[in-house]
Amino acid sequence: MRAIVMTTTGAPEVLAPRDLDDPAPAAGQVLVRASAVPVLYPETKVRAGAFPFPAPLPAVFGFQAAGTIVDLGAGVDPALLGARVVAATSGFGAYAELVAADQDSVTLIPDGLGTEAAAAIQMPGSVALALIATAALTPGETVLVEAGATGVGSCLVQLCAARGVRVIATAGGPEKATLARAHGAAAVLDHATPDWADRLGEVLSGGTVDVVFDSIGGESLTPLLDHVTPLRGRILSYGWLAGAPAQLGAADLILRGLTLTGCAGAAWLGTVAAQRSAALDAAARGLLSVDIDATLPLDAAAEAHRKLEDRAAFGAVLLRP
Ligand SMILES: NC(=O)c1ccc[n+]([C@@H]2O[C@H](COP(=O)([O-])OP(=O)(O)OC[C@H]3O[C@@H](n4cnc5c(N)ncnc54)[C@H](OP(=O)(O)O)[C@@H]3O)[C@@H](O)[C@H]2O)c1
């Protein structure tokens, strides 16, 4: 089979196309013939060496793949043969024509949802649903969705708007601002400009933000704190696009009566996994969608990673094995 092998950590070129023997499903595993593989932002960090790679290198890269189950290991429910699924791997093995994955890690794709759309929505949709559940929103609240034109960000914008919540988003540049507005943001601030937090005050005109969905991290939260509702404001920190988690001290929160919830790590990922079916169902019912920027051949994995790192993608990037 054709597969993308990560040879070492580093630049996108460490993702090399190779011809390998077909994998066989072990006991409890299914074998998926992949037709759409999502290229995920956290994968770029794993490839670069910022997050650990969970296996000795070289190894087939990739977290998720969508396609059809073509073979079963011992002990697997025979009804799964031929099913369309999105499979989550143990952190490697998904950028390939054939993907072996634990049967517990596959999510059935509902009728009415295309395989590409399912591949694109599963990760951002399930993360956004887990964040929304954690935020305990009430109608009439105001939320700030940082990076609202990203996969997770655009799902948050849609889900919040559908719950009667006023959504203020940030995005990098006018085209991504248009995307965030199309998904339901009432106002969008350009986070590529240095004074965007000051302009949040103008947009709020005396009001405050009840929930901040923080994906940028770094120093970006500090100037926002005085715009968050005292005693009731919640900050959910789930990403650090700026390169480091939110740089806040306990006193920053305590003196304003705010809470910060960390939404990352192994236990959090279990919460996200529990939302996978719900994300695909919401997409099948037309309640959630992700823009698809490009579908590239499997061999173009390095190009796909570069596109994400250059912030040049306007939606999901998929590989087609
Ligand atoms: N905790 C979790 O469970 C979890 C799960 C998945 C993802 N995440 C995190 O969520 C974040 C978004 O992931 P995604 O998959 O939705 O991303 P994505 O769709 O791949 O979007 C990436 C976008 O992030 C923006 N960006 C990049 N660097 C930035 C920076 N320094 N400041 C502000 N924005 C920047 C760019 O948009 P602009 O051009 O608009 O700036 C870029 O196009 C990432 O930090 C990711 O690691 C967390």
UniProtKB/TrEMBL annotation:
Please name the SUPFAM superfamilies in this protein's record.
GroES-like, NAD(P)-binding Rossmann-fold domains
Q: Does the keyword NADP apply?
A: yes
Question: Domain Enoyl reductase (ER) spans what residues?
Answer: 10-319
The record's annotation in Pfam families points to: ADH_N, ADH_zinc_N
The record's Gene3D superfamilies line, in alphabetical order, gives: Medium-chain alcohol dehydrogenases, catalytic domain, NAD(P)-binding Rossmann-like Domain
Can you provide one Gene Ontology molecular function annotated for this UniProt record?
Answer: NADPH binding
Query: Can the keyword NADP be found in this entry's annotation?
Result: yes
Keywords carried by this UniProt record: NADP, Oxidoreductase
PANTHER family documented for this protein: QUINONE OXIDOREDUCTASE PIG3-RELATED
Q: What is this protein called?
A: NADPH:quinone reductase-like Zn-dependent oxidoreductase
- Native source organism of the sequence: Nocardia neocaledoniensis
